[in-house]
Please model this.
Amino acid sequence: MKGSLISSFKSIASGMGILSRGANPLRRLGDSVFAFVVFLAAFAVIILMALMVYELVRQSLPSIEQFGVRFLISREWDPINNVYGALPYIYGTIVSSLLALLMSVPLSLGIAIFLSQFAPRWLRAPLGMLVDLLAAIPSVVYGLWGIFVLAPFLGKTVEPFLADHLGGIPVFRGPAYGIGLFAASVVLAIMITPTISAISREVMANVSRDQKEAAQALGATPWETVRMSVLPLARPGIIGAVILGLGRALGETMAVTMLIGNVRQLNVSIFAPAYSIASVIANEFAEVTEGPHMAALIEMALILLFITLLLNLLARLLVQRTGSRAARVKGRP
Amino acid sequence: MAGYITTNNLGASFGGVQAIENITVEIPANKVTAIIGPSGCGKSTFLRCLNRMHELVPGTKISGEVIWDGRNIYASEMDATEVRRGIGMVFQKPNPFPLMSIEDNVSAGLRLAAGRMSKARIAEIIEHSLKLAALWDEVKNKLGRPGGSLSGGQQQRLCIARALAVQPDVILMDEPCSALDPASTQKIEDTIDKLKKDYTIVIVTHNMQQAARVSDFTGFMLAREMSDPGRMIEYGPTNKIFTMPDRKETENYITGRFG
Model:
């Protein structure tokens, strides 16, 4: 087993040209050791990932066997009678993340377009750094700020305003709590904005000048130039940025737990409190020891991992499709 | 002959470095005017000042006047996008919108222009522009393919068609053939010859034979030292510039003694 691993590594390494031939033996030994170390580093990630999935599946098996698909569509969560259903959590996770995207994407694209196309040179670096700094704020700080500043503001001002003017739409109906799905989404939106805007800014800045001049020479205004030259070429990168932001939103635990309200319910109103997968795991993990409750929580982790992977894969495909089209087209002289 | 485009003491700088200086020329209507000169003499900068493309690069300054059809394009009431619409440009490196279809590339400028146009009218302009650019026969069966799928020479003719579609009356060409093979160059020169009936054309080229072949008037530009701004050394009818130039520098350049 061990021998075959080493020999298979050797064949990979020599295939990649890491192993040198003909150098003196000591140098060759050094090369081999180096190649082995970097190979191990890369391999460790795969092993880690596989172990994680294996362990999650193994420990959630009791729950999977007992509840099957019902786990995904049931809204019951009763540790006393050991009946578990994850729907409210899945709902809370997905809806809060999508709402966050809805708010963050226009904002981030605005930031990216301004910084890459319109901002005067002296403003670019400091402003860009300021946006990037948002990513460095710990999520517990976001949570605290959300509880003491954002949630009261939303509950007293924004939510009544939305209810008054858009109350015809069910999602804006219902009592304004402040703490709830909406508050969690707003904080998530702020948290993922640096990710989305930084990557979008980079890809937009990389659109070459002659592409922009093509539009400008036709009499395009600055905005028309962005629409005609910059956005189409930056699109694959922007999609990638959005998915990265979504991934962050789906998994965010602390800030969401502090703001979403932690009430297991399915309520159409976005003002109502809700719950998320990451939050329920964080909240209940300390209290359980073994048995079905634990299995149910671990299955939730598996579901979260699965949702994240699925969305990433989807994004990859999307980027590859638009990206390969761009590459095919650019490949010509 | 009165200039259709006249420059008065035109100068331009990049971030404090003077690129061209003191250029006064009269470019006649419905003729091809070539601008020649060694690398770094400011030919492209001069060209880009004629339709206000130069100012798009941050840190640039322009002095003097450019009179186009009786109006100074740098006057405060002139709209730069209007100027660029009326004075089209073709660049050194073919730059079609790579993901946009061939027909959308041609109609891109039209779709920016104010007012709705009927689909039939747009299709008509697309066909007309592609025919003028001598590309129609090669692409008429694949108008929906992306612009980036064409060969380099075809891409450049697509760019010419795109510039023609907005119906400018002047077309500026910045070394349009320098990235192309001889066959494609030939096609573009033929196109230029056809176009001058309806358009005023200014072409920058580092290829003297090309200037001699396609142009009616020629301007020779030169920067005396590397750090000096480029000036218009001599400007006149092409056959005079190439056979009996007034200035020694022009003669040296034409006969290949430098540059």
The longest helix of chain B spans residues 119-132. The first strand of chain B starts at residue 5 and ends at 14. Residues 145 and 210 of chain B are 32 Å apart (CA to CA). Chain B has a mean pLDDT of 91.
